[in-house]
User: What shape does this take?
Amino acid sequence: MLLRQQGHRPGSHHMEHIEEKLLLYGQLSQADRREVDDYLAAHPELRPLLEQAQALSALFAACRDLLSETPGDEILAYLLVSRHIQHGRPLPEVLRPFFERIEARLASDPDLQRRYHLLEDRLHRLEAGHDAVAQFERLTGTRLYAPDDEASDGQARYVHEHAPPLAMAAEPPASYHPSAPEAPAEVPAERHRRADWPADRPADRPPAAPARLRLVSRWAVAAVLGLFVAYGLLAVVSRLTQPPLERLAWIDPELLDLEGYDVQFRGETRPGQDPAETAYLNALARLREAQTRTLGLFPRFDENRLQAAEAELRKALAGDAGGFIHSEAQFLLAKVLLAQHRTAEARVLLQQVASSNSRHADEAAAILNALRQHAET
Amino acid sequence: MPSPAFHSLDAVAAHLPFHLSDIEAANATFVRWWQERTPAHRRTVDIWTYCFVRRYFLVKFVKEPPPNPSDLDELVERTFQKIERNRETIRQPERYASWVSVICKNTYLNYVRRRHRLYSLDEDEAPEPAADPPPPLPYDAGVLMSTVLAAIERLPNFLREVAYLRFVKACSYQEIEAHIDKPLPILRSYVNKAARQLRQDPHLLALLEEPLPDPEKQG
Assistant: This one.
């Protein structure tokens, strides 16, 4: 990129050669390094490029050291510290194979084990008596644990709950979009109050408030869960208690809610409107009133309104032979007859719809199939 | 199960909803905090930052014990505060983890240089300035490996293996030829293409950037 910015021809073979060598600068032979140095001496404007390339070369070299067949102290110390935290949480995919290889090597190499134990002793000496929880709380001015927790210091708290908190126990989502943990517990006002903490953070809540809030939250969550369970049970009961014919007869409310026909639902008629269309729209209005549910459950039909809808649908059928309204009315009338348990009449209409090119042909065939199975049982 | 002497960092890290070495998750959380400014995201960012900084210095101190181990706490605190002070100035929030790791690296290098000068003068009263110590590996191992390997993963399929062998394993062309059945001129062209793309990879370059605009802030 820099080469192009500096006006050098990207396709130049010699430049490509130099670019590659720059990335391996640390590993070059003396002759190769001299070649690069000479080139750059002749092109002082490329000095930033050399610096960038040398820094990248150092990155690759450092990575090479870490990934070496014989693990060095840096990677052993990293493994050691990482092994002591976050048990059960898997390493990121990109690192896993390398640490598995080091673990395998460590398990079978006594020299490596000796080095590892030496590092482990150092780690314990460094960490003995250190309270990271207290340091974190001092630095951030927040409490990691709620003030009413039984344990009073970081180490004792850890003994009480060395397992990760419940919210953290689940695996992270595969998408790597972490869920946020619960909101921070508050620090008493006399502790370090940070000026830059977001303004939505209440300042003077008494120490016990978070515990009470959590209790209320738990009850609220339990209540919502209870409602969900109750609703689920009612849905099962609703489905079990609904006669199969009525389930097949149920009309998708969207079918009854045609765009542009809302004027008709208010009892008005457009001048010059076709009688078949008027009857059809009246039927839709009756059907909307005829089928009802409570909280989306326990669907039921109103017998009188079904009869009124049937009369309007028959008028529509008679007034529009073979048109769109005819096809729609035929299907709806079949549903109305099913809702009234008049299966034989409904079946005749459904067969006509299924064999036509109506948009309801597939559904009509499916209902006929269901009726056949129902009759067999 | 951690040993009893090392449980309290685990007690902090246990509050993270992802692995401490998962820099993609850390970056994503920081971006969400940057955009939404919710206390919950801020808390996760703080926990990750603290645990990352403490682990970074622990690894360095375990590998090369300094004359004064009590420097550890002070270094962790100074670095955390530096990060916190400068968080709002970050230019690429989506590379927060790299930014934090470079601040750790710079702070550690400054510490090593200062320590070296101090002890050189203590041991030898001669006024000659001490030579710079051999540079320790200053990067966080997890960030470095994740960034380099992910940059190679982002290359087109046909360049990945050749880039890994040439730049990470430092294989010669003869060694690469033994792994990949392609004529030498093709391999050379692949290496050149890979080199050019790696030099433009924004995640790799983020590890080289100076994270703090004002050198005085680096303390």
